[in-house]
Specification:
The chain is 42% helix and 18% strand. The protein is α+β, with helices and mostly antiparallel strands and 334 residues long. It folds into 2 domains: 95 residues, Hypothetical Oxidoreductase Yiak, Chain: A, domain 1 (Orthogonal Bundle); 185 residues, 2-Layer Sandwich (Ribosomal Protein S8, Chain: A, domain 1), CATH 3.30.1370.60. The protein has a 7-stranded mixed sheet, sandwiched between helices. A 4-stranded mixed sheet has the order 6-11-9-10. Strands 1-13 form a two-stranded antiparallel sheet.
């Protein structure tokens, strides 16, 4: 039997998240940016970086790892380059502050790149290119995080989950959206599995001694594994260079914990926006026809299910476990 859930309309979920963020010590600007991102993830069914991830932000606000009153600083090293210092705050607020300039410059020059550093966490990485795709841009993003993934013969964690994401507009239907970590799973999923006493699938993690484990609690003291072995580790390294190197952020191995202590993680993210119509005026409808052809051959088209879930959530609300609500309220200290 499945656990009982509570049905909530999205405006009720919005109030729950906003009140929790404000109670935990976030400014109004930070509340609005975080609410938008959390609801986007939860509404599309990406729960690991939705309401399940919210308590991590709330506890970080209360314990000093996250600056709830940070005012991001935006600068322009070159006409098509934007740089944001999140100043210990959330990446979502920095992105919001840069969004208009990013899209204007991408439309003007055909391409623009946003480099962001000094953030607590990127959260759901697909959120950023998805917003750009909805505005008509093709977009790529990469972000690093606290070291929690090992690779090859490395002793201990050397990379974060280091996700990549890509989105592009279609002639009809939700944008194409690819969002995946370099690790086999997300750290949030491992923490939740540990809390619930659930086992991890084989091949996802190792314990503190570097031995394979399916015990989520032992995995938290060890490290996650890269998907695809060395090939996944190569992608993690690429992300590390782009997000932390070009992003002017801490390397993952130097990032402070995002779940304990008072030091700020100061991770990085890079977002690239491209104006496809300057290269092909028929890009969106042509992509749509091709994706439909691929789907007719049985290929899963990333982004469709999430887009459909988001539309359904906006119409009918979502189901939330009472334990999730209780965890949010407790983490907010309200």
């Amino acid at each position: 039997m499945s656990d009982p859930t509570v049905r909530m309309e999205m405006d009720e979920v919005e109030k729950l998240v906003f009140d929790a963020c404000f109670s935990a010590g976030a400014s109004l600007d930070t509340c609005h940016s975080l609410v938008r991102a959390i609801l986007s993830a939860e509404g599309s069914g990406n729960k690991a970086v939705g309401l399940d991830h919210l308590p991590d932000y709330l506890m970080a606000l209360r314990e000093g790892r996250l600056n709830g009153y940070a005012q991001p600083e935006l600068s322009f090293p070159a006409p098509a380059l934007l740089q944001v210092d999140a100043r210990g705050g959330i990446a979502q607020l920095g992105f919001d502050r840069a969004f208009d300039e990013l899209t204007t410059r991408a439309a003007t020059f055909g391409i623009a790149l946003l480099s962001l550093h000094g953030a607590f966490s990127a959260g759901e990485l697909g959120y950023y290119p998805l917003r750009l795709a909805k505005a008509g841009f093709a977009a790529f993003a990469a972000a690093n995080g606290a070291g929690l993934m090992t690779a090859g013969s490395a002793r201990g964690p050397v990379f974060g989950a280091n996700p990549i994401a890509f989105a592009a507009p279609r002639g009809s239907g939700p944008p194409l959206l690819i969002d995946q970590a370099s690790s086999r799973t997300s750290p949030v999923s491992v923490r939740r599995a540990a809390e619930r006493g659930e086992a991890l699938p084989p091949g996802w993690a190792v314990d503190a001694d570097g031995k394979p484990t399916t015990d989520a609690a032992k995995a938290l003291k060890g490290a996650l594994l890269a998907f695809g072995g060395n090939r996944g580790a190569n992608i993690a390294l690429m992300v590390e260079v782009m997000a932390a190197g070009l992003g002017k952020a801490n390397w993952s191995a130097d990032v402070e914990s995002q779940v304990q202590g008072s030091a700020r993680p100061a991770v990085g993210m890079i977002v690239i926006a491209i104006t496809p119509a300057l290269l092909d005026q028929d890009f969106a409808p042509r992509l749509d026809r091709h994706l439909r052809r691929l789907a007719s051959n049985g290929l899963h088209i990333p982004g469709e299910a999430k887009g459909n879930a988001a539309r359904a959530a906006s119409r009918s609300g979502i189901n939330i476990a009472p334990e999730t609500i209780a965890r949010i309220v407790a983490a907010a200290g309200s």
